[in-house]
Design a protein that fits this description.
Organism: Isoptericola halotolerans
InterPro entries: Zinicin_2, Zinicin_2_N
Strand content: under 5%
Helix content: 55-70%
GO molecular function, one term: hydrolase activity
Protein name: Hydrolase
Keywords: Hydrolase
Number of strands: 4
Number of helices: 20
Number of domains: 2
Length: 491
């Protein structure tokens, strides 16, 4: 093992550069975590060679980074980073009073919604979560959304970097900034082929980015459904009181009113996802359909990583950023993305309209609160932009106002039953043309109903005619008389 620099500052810089190549801006967090686990980073900086036991501990941590899990997203890395990001700005445990207040708000919201929609309550429990609890409950859904694209990107990265590194990769990579210190000296990865090592590297990178995005979202969301995509496996209504409080602090509305409005939106989402059984599968199918069409330009990727210096931390991190994979959308994918965007807008538009109807008689500030949420959802946030770089998907409904206008038109012309009938079948979902012309959607639905009625009537007439002779008493008498069809005489 090679000697480290004699100068303490150079040794410290070497260690930080090494960790920065792996952890980036998380380097300080990683060092703090090492200390919390009884590992003194200073031991790596003193003397001409690190203590073997200490270095082995560090190597074990790095090996875990690259080997945990066998999927396209390193789930342990994603989980650990998401938890760290979630608590970065504080995440105190909820008091009993906070939890009780949130659950009561969700219960009241259900009563108000009963008067606004025929869709029944979701039937699940009411919960109040901290940011960390939100991460634990929803991270599997985020990993599932990202996995199809991550698999394609990891394979591409393995192909390109494996070809470039060749046999050198099988001998073990070196820590950037610390030449001579192999990442896995004598470890279980030392005998792996370059493609497997590079695939593990891509999985770790995606794990970091998913964790960063999910952790950031945990500081922004108000419940389990307001992102617009179902994130829970079982029915439940959830509030994250700390985020509701942070949002309310910048408004003129009192906290209790803000919390009730968020509870109404959460409960409305839950009703929709539970009692429209095809909606969850429809949204996930659109994401998967998009992912199946992913085509990664290997030539472009190779061009981007061709000049990577594996001992340069910044070069490595830049090459492994979310945009390095050069995802190219085909025309078919663009059509799929448009359908997904429209579906998300319809979910948001329906929830916005139903929540407004339910809360208007009870909350004096419901109108400005609705407008604040609209603007917030339209603008998006840093986490949503991160997911866009990961999978090319926009998780914000650009046309939610148009969707809300369509549902308002249906309510005005046909009542709540007509508004909610949009969810009767996926074939009845409005498209972009319907969002442009809500009255046209109602006319199209009427024409479809009349067409179906004509078809049903024609089918009924056909079946009636075919079964008519058998119901004719005179024909039945002939059938049992035993007449010979050829002679007309009895046998």
């Amino acid at each position: 093992m090679s000697e480290l620099p004699d100068d303490p500052e150079e040794r410290e810089r070497a260690l930080r550069d090494a960790l920065h190549g792996i952890f980036g801006e998380r380097t300080d967090e990683v060092l703090d975590q090492m200390r919390s686990q009884g590992l003194d980073p200073a031991a790596l900086l003193g003397g001409k060679a690190p203590d073997p036991a200490t270095m082995q501990h560090l190597m074990n941590q790095l090996e875990r980074l690259f080997t945990s899990g066998d999927g396209p997203v390193n789930t342990e890395v994603a989980h650990d980073l998401a938890r760290q990001v979630a608590v970065a700005e504080g995440d105190p445990s909820l008091t009993a009073a906070q939890a009780r207040s949130a659950r009561e708000a969700l219960s009241v919201a259900e009563l108000w919604l009963d008067a606004a929609t025929d869709l029944p309550p979701s039937g699940g429990p009411t919960r109040a979560w901290s940011r960390s609890e939100w991460v634990e409950a929803t991270l599997p859904a985020w990993q599932q959304l990202v996995a199809p694209v991550a698999a394609s990107a990891a394979d591409a990265l393995a192909t390109v970097l494996g070809d470039q590194l060749g046999d050198d990769a099988a001998a073990g990579l070196e820590l950037p900034g610390m030449p001579g210190l192999p990442v896995f000296p004598g470890g279980s990865l030392s005998g792996l082929d370059p493609a497997t090592m590079m695939r593990s590297l891509g999985s770790a990178v995606y794990g970091m980015q998913v964790g960063q995005a999910a952790g950031t979202l945990s500081r922004e969301v108000f419940g389990a459904t307001d992102v617009g995509v179902p994130l829970l496996g079982e029915p439940a209504t959830v509030l994250v009181p700390s985020n509701v409080r942070a949002f309310a602090d910048g408004l003129d509305s009192p906290f209790d009113e803000v919390q009730l409005y968020m509870a109404v939106r959460e409960a409305a989402h839950a009703r929709l996802f539970v009692h429209v059984p095809w909606l969850r599968a429809h949204l996930h199918a659109l994401v998967e359909q998009y992912a199946r069409g992913i085509r990664i330009d290997l030539d472009a990727l190779e061009q981007q990583v061709r000049d990577i210096d594996m001992s340069d931390a910044e070069s490595l991190r830049g090459a492994l950023s979310g945009d390095v994979f050069g995802l190219h959308n085909t025309e078919e994918q663009q059509a799929t993305l448009l359908r997904l965007e429209t579906a998300l807008a319809l979910v948001e538009g329906w929830v916005s309209e139903v929540a407004a109807t339910a809360s208007l008689p009870h909350l004096p500030h419901s109108v400005p609160l609705r407008e604040m949420i609209r603007r917030r959802r339209a603008a998006g946030g840093p986490a949503e932009h991160t997911f866009r770089s990961l999978v090319g998907l926009e998780l914000r409904p650009r046309r939610s106002r148009d969707a809300a206008a369509l549902f308002a038109h249906l309510l005005a012309t046909g009542g709540a039953e007509a508004r909610d009938a949009v969810w009767d079948h996926p074939d009845l979902l409005p498209d972009t043309a319907d969002l442009d012309n809500p009255a046209g959607y109602a006319d199209r639905r009427t024409a479809q109903a009349e067409e179906h009625a004509d078809v049903d009537e024609a089918l009924a007439q056909i079946f009636s005619e075919s079964s008519g002779p058998s119901s004719d008493p005179s024909r039945q008498a002939d059938d049992v008389s035993g007449d010979d069809p050829a002679t007309g005489r009895d046998d």
